[in-house]
Amino acid sequence: METKVALAGVAGSLLGAMAGALGATRAALISSRGQSSLEAKKSLKTAVNAFATAMLLQRDAVDEIMGDVRWRRLEPVAVMGKIQAARQSQVDLKRTVSAVAVEAPEYPAALAQFAVVHLDIWLEHLADFISEGMPPAENPDQVDFWEQRWGDKRLMDEVVDSFTRACRAVFKSERRMFLVRLLPPARRRRT
Question: Could you read off the pLDDT of 82-93 as tens digits, one per residue?
Answer without folding.
Answer: 999 999 999 999
